[in-house]
Amino acid sequence: MQGLINTESIRKEAKNMRKGSTDPKKNRFFNKVEKHVRAVCEDKTDEVMKKAFEGYKKIVNENIDEPEIMYPHTRERIYPAIAIFYALLDFGLSREESSKLILDYYIYMSKKGGSVLRGLLKIPGLYKKVPSIAYKAIEKSYGEDAGFKAEFLITTKDELKVDMFVCPYFEICKKYGCPEIVNAFCTSDDMAYGNMHKNLKWHREQTLGRGGDRCDFNIKIEKNNK
User: Potential cystine with 110: which of 39, 172, 188, 208 (Cβ 3.0-4.6 Å)?
Assistant: First the structure.
């Protein structure tokens, strides 16, 4: 789940995102993904980005009545990714090439985010709060009003286990005909949270975006003396 571990820096960013600006030039995804587009499209980059901006605005307008709690998911992540995907297709890239560019972007960003997270969790004892922080984040930002449907299986101070049966990242991408890009969001989670701290284990066996019937994941404190 994108943005699950809610550190203070992430809280501040989420607050800004909830303002819900529809201007793509103020969108973090577009600002960061452009260099990845330029590496592939070279002199066509400006045209691709313009096409993506137009696509983004169209998708936002088609979903103008969605609740604001969805904005950090839709307007900041899902809609821009869909818009870039189709803009790249229009300029001659294959579906595989277009989805790979989005995956590469999220790999790059999650490496940076994961590094920041690992740095924060060097604060003595902070890792022990991660299951509780994640639980509160899901309760606040990943509920049914934001398009998710989850079942909490374990919610202790040492472990969080959740099955997510409905996810807007998957549902919306499927609706717009590009379910293959959802893997980028799943991969971002795995890379950011998979190596947070030596005493934290992040585990899941399937996701909706990878063909599973749910997103099952588990964050657990496991003392590692190595």
Answer: 188
